[in-house]
Design a protein that fits this description.
The complex is a heterodimer of chains A (376) and B (515).
Chain A (H helix, E strand, L loop, with lengths): L2 E2 L2 E5 L4 H25 L4 H14 L3 H24 L7 H18 L7 H27 L3 H21 L32 H20 L1 H11 L1 H7 L3 H28 L5 H4 L3 H11 L6 H22 L6 H16 L5 E5 L4 H11 L7
Antiparallel strand pairs in A: 1-2, 2-3
Helix pairs in contact in A: 1-2, 1-14, 2-3, 2-13, 3-7, 3-10, 3-12, 3-13, 4-5, 4-6, 4-10, 4-12, 5-6, 5-10, 7-8, 7-10, 8-9, 8-10, 12-13, 12-14, 13-14
Chain B lengths: L16 E12 L2 E12 L3 E5 L6 H8 L7 E6 L2 E3 L4 H6 L2 E4 L11 H6 L10 H16 L14 H14 L4 E5 L7 H16 L3 E6 L2 H7 L2 E6 L2 E7 L5 H9 L17 E11 L5 E11 L3 E5 L6 H8 L7 E6 L2 E2 L5 H6 L2 E4 L3 H5 L6 H5 L10 E2 L2 E2 L1 H14 L16 H13 L5 E5 L7 H16 L3 E6 L2 H7 L2 E6 L2 E7 L4 H8 L6
Parallel strand pairs in B: 3-8, 3-9, 6-7, 7-8, 13-20, 13-21, 16-19, 19-20
Antiparallel strand pairs in B: 1-2, 1-4, 4-5, 9-10, 11-12, 11-14, 14-15, 17-18, 21-22
Helix pairs in contact in B: 14-15
The chains are: A mainly alpha (376), B alpha/beta (515).
Chain lengths: 376, 515
């Protein structure tokens, strides 16, 4: 293994703390590069981060603003962890989220249902719609070997145009004049907020429950065992007779359903109506992919990673208001973080050890370490 | 350690040595793949490298092609020592390789595949010049192939020609062919031999890796025999006695005493009649095979890899649906059952590719030990797993089978090959199967583990299990089996009782009809 100065780089088993350290280093590296973006925008990166920390973290009332985007990200991310563990690459959470929002809107406005059962019915319908939106690509993969990365991605656009069509066409509210909205939901279909904030706490509870249930499913049930076997070694899964059909359908239904729940939370807790798809979801379905990736296969870790990205979303608001940058800067953050996370994947298999070389003996080895990479 | 010099014949009249391998040694964890191997390759000769699977042939060739670095020893090219760090170095030395599994871009055309890689391909429209040269070389060596055909449309034989052309166009003077006939029909093999003769006529040197005896006498000038990583000897191929070659290749040094059998074979456990199974390409790989395995009996299937054994095993373990025929397990028709149904019905399967299929490398030893039974009590109650039960069972199995692991929580991938195989056997045999399908159960393992696995299989035979043993190691088949079937070209060409003549079995394996 290579010797670089006083450090020795060697292959080793991946441990928990090392995974955390490498992931954190990737996020920090992304922030450093994002600093260059600030600089290119004509801002002093140090001052920009200081403003973000002050206005986005330390100012009173900022925590709820972090939590608000955390809620959909947690639901989407925790669900996607399950799919990724089975090596099913569901890129369609955005569409599944919108499908859930559409189903919840239907229950709220058009089903005629009123009273205390309205919200549970909306969550149930949202879960079912998200799951169905996920199952279609799953069936295509299993029956026709259609790559699910492509099909789930394409289903996002179908869902977006479906929502656009609904809010400009058949579901356009008679009471909203020229706007592309539905009518507002009846009061029974409004989620409770934590007083003084805009946090629809029932969805947050659902999110934490979904993450915990996902952890339980993966670690403690036979279905989770099958998901892990299928994901870690499909050949062995075939050999012991684990049904790829069943695990794929299961994880697509669960991850789609969880995204659907996120969609219910957005329309019932934030907007109280169905509106333009880019306002229903601020790219939560896509950012959720990074949330799940950063959680490295652990559904409960999605609670933390979702909060991190909630922070980035609220920082986006700060940058828009205090630094006059476009909100889309958050996409730059997200992209950089995903880039560095995937790039750091290889590092998980290595360890850096402090091994100061004794000059006389080790000098040639140290010289050898400066050779081009690939020479072991 | 004894000397690697064996029965080396002196051929003083031959051409100058082009490539010399001197004392090459290469070890992998737990295996000494090449042990001080030396051989010479002369200009204008075809040298056959003969040996069983695991004898170290492919390792040696991968060293010559720069894919592995030897632990010790040197390679001399025209008398000068060379270091081959990569295939690029090998090509620069004029060494080309035709791998057993072709490395072609299936969607690209022949010419595009050949243009890929070598220096000197023009940047703009790289294919134009190549196509003409493909046709020229094709005519010269009898390697006809359409340069504009897409690779996926070509037969295995044509793809092999593309690989040979690729090596020749890169200036190969020394061509290594790794088991080239394993994918060819006899007629295609004859064509290939003709190509090799033309190359020899032009002064090129060929190393031809094989374990088929008749090919050695058909095409080679000399033959170097490897066994267990060592050179057993080098002899002229002309007039070589195939029986003597077989003896050199297989050896006789594993005549260890195994426990005598107790009890007698009982009623049939497995009855297979007229079984047909399609191979990966859709052509029948198993063609009308019929046999029975009795309780308390080991039925060995001898044969060279690629003669339908893999497809037969997959069909019997539920991994590959048979096209037609009957399979009965203790009298019950089980054709088309899933792997899980068959396992529940008492079929254990020791798979050929132990790391790829037999374990989940990243999961713990304990999880791998319950891989078959995770959903059954006591390892699960309803949908819930009971990890404590898994750990308890794992601790017992680890102790009983002497699996070397510091902890049942350790990922299975960190075990050595022998311990992985012990893990698989522990798992598969823990359910007291009535039929054990063991595919190459000791390939690549050390002597001690091999013997342990043999004893384990015989122990279960004595307890009344039927054992179907598929192996390329003829010693293993002869040592364990009560009856031996020989598979060739998808058929069971002979079934003989234990104690049958080894040479005769070797000839059947090589496709010689019974005389």
């Amino acid at each position: 293994m290579a010797q670089v100065g006083p450090f020795r780089i060697e292959r080793a088993e991946t441990t928990g703390w090392w995974t955390v350290a490498v992931s954190a280093a990737a996020v920090v590296a992304a922030f450093l590069v994002a600093g260059a973006v600030f600089w290119a925008y004509g801002l002093d990166p140090v001052r920009a981060y200081a403003v973000i920390v002050r206005d986005g973290l330390l100012a009173p009332g900022t925590l709820p603003e972090v939590l608000r985007p955390t809620i959909p990200l947690l639901l989407v991310g925790a669900g996607l962890v399950l799919a990724f563990r089975a090596q099913v690459y569901n890129i369609g959470a955005e569409g599944q989220l919108l499908a859930g929002a559409v189903a919840a809107t239907w229950v709220a406005l058009f089903s005629g249902l009123r009273g205390p059962m309205t919200l549970p019915a909306m969550f149930a319908a949202g879960f079912a719609a998200g799951a169905l939106w996920g199952l279609l690509p799953a069936v295509l993969r299993l029956r026709l070997s259609v790559n699910e990365v492509i099909s789930t991605l394409m289903m996002n656009y179908v869902a977006q145009y479906l929502v656009s069509w609904l809010v400009t066409g058949p579901w356009k509210g008679p009471s909203v004049r020229g706007f592309a909205y539905t009518d507002p939901f009846p009061a029974d279909a409004w989620l409770a907020l934590i007083p003084g904030t805009r946090i629809h706490w029932p969805t947050l509870v659902v999110g934490v429950v979904v993450a915990a249930a996902g952890a339980l499913l993966l670690g403690r049930t036979t279905l989770g065992f099958e998901i892990r076997v299928q994901g870690e070694n499909p050949e062995a899964a075939r050999y012991v007779g684990v049904s790829a059909l069943r695990t794929t359908l299961l994880v697509m239904a669960l991850s789609g359903g969880a995204a659907g729940l996120a969609g219910v939370g957005e329309v019932a807790g934030v907007h109280h109506k169905l509106l333009d798809p880019t306002q229903v979801s601020l790219g939560y379905g896509y950012t959720g992919i990074i949330v799940a990736w950063l959680a490295r296969g652990r559904p409960l870790a999605a609670v933390l990673t979702a909060a991190l990205f909630g922070l980035i979303y609220s920082a986006g608001d700060v940058m828009q208001v205090s630094l006059q940058m476009p909100f889309r800067v958050t996409s730059v953050f997200n992209g950089l973080i995903l880039f560095f996370l995937i790039g750091s994947e290889r590092l998980l298999a290595y360890r850096i050890r402090w091994a100061p070389a004794r000059v006389a003996v080790e000098a040639p080895a140290a010289a050898g370490a400066s050779a081009p990479p690939g020479e072991e | 350690m004894r000397s690697d010099a064996g029965v080396t014949a002196d051929l003083s009249s031959a051409a100058p040595v082009r490539l010399a391998v001197r004392n090459i040694t290469k070890s992998f964890p737990g295996v000494l793949a090449n042990d001080r191997i030396s051989l010479d390759l002369r200009a204008g000769e075809v040298l056959a490298l003969l040996g069983e699977n695991g004898a170290g042939k492919t390792t040696l060739m991968n060293i010559l092609y720069g894919l592995y670095q030897p632990d010790a020893g040197e390679i001399l090219l025209d008398g000068r020592p060379v270091r081959i760090h990569s295939p690029r170095d090998a090509i620069a030395c004029g060494i080309g390789m035709v791998p057993q599994h072709f490395l072609l871009v299936r969607r690209h055309t022949v010419a595009e595949n050949i243009a890929l890689g070598p220096a000197g391909t023009p940047f703009w429209r790289p294919v134009r010049q190549v196509a003409a040269r493909v046709e020229e070389f094709g005519r010269r060596y009898g390697l006809a192939v359409d340069p504009h055909a897409a690779v996926w449309q070509l037969s295995a034989s044509e793809q092999q020609r593309v690989e040979i052309l690729k090596a020749l166009l890169r200036g190969a003077e020394i061509l290594i062919l790794d088991e080239p006939t394993s994918v060819l029909t006899p007629q295609e093999a004859a064509q290939l031999f003709e190509v090799l003769r033309r190359m020899r006529g032009e002064g090129k040197s060929v190393i031809f890796i094989t374990h088929k005896l008749d090919e050695v006498t058909a095409v080679a000038d000399r033959v170097t025999v490897l066994r267990r990583g060592r050179v057993v000897g080098t002899v002229p191929a002309a007039g070589a006695d195939t029986a003597a070659l077989a003896r050199m290749m297989v050896g006789r040094d594993l005549d260890r005493a195994l426990p005598p059998r107790r009890g007698r074979p009982g009623p049939p456990v497995l009855e297979v009649s007229d079984l047909w199974v399609a191979g990966d390409r859709g052509r029948p790989a198993v063609r009308g095979v019929s046999f029975t395995v009795a309780a308390g009996e080991v039925f060995g299937i001898a044969g060279v890899a690629g003669n339908g054994q893999r497809e037969l095993v997959e069909a019997l373990t539920g991994l590959r649906p048979p096209a037609r025929g009957q399979v009965r397990l203790r009298g019950v028709p089980v054709r088309g059952w899933t792997p899980r149904q068959l396992a529940r019905a008492g079929v254990a399967h020791v798979p050929e590719e132990r790391t790829r299929a037999g374990i989940v490398p990243s999961m713990s030893v304990a999880d791998n030990l319950i891989l078959r039974r995770y959903a059954d009590p006591p390892f699960a109650r309803g949908l819930l797993l009971r990890p404590a039960e898994a750990l308890r069972a794992a601790a017992d199995l680890i102790a009983a089978h002497d699996i070397q692991t510091p902890s049942p929580h350790r990922p299975a991938r960190l075990l050595s090959g022998g311990n992985i195989q012990k893990l698989i056997l522990a798992r598969e045999l823990s359910a007291d199967p009535s039929l054990i399908v063991a595919s190459h159960p000791t390939a690549g393992l050390d002597v001690a583990t091999t013997e342990r696995i043999h004893r384990l299989l015989l122990e279960h035979r004595d307890r009344g299990a039927g054992v179907l043993l598929v192996s390329e190691d003829l010693d293993e088949i002869l040592a364990l089996s009560d009856r031996i079937g020989v598979m060739f070209d998808g058929r069971l060409v002979a079934v003989v009782p234990a104690g049958a003549d080894r040479q005769q079995i070797g000839l059947w394996m090589a496709g010689r009809a019974a005389s």
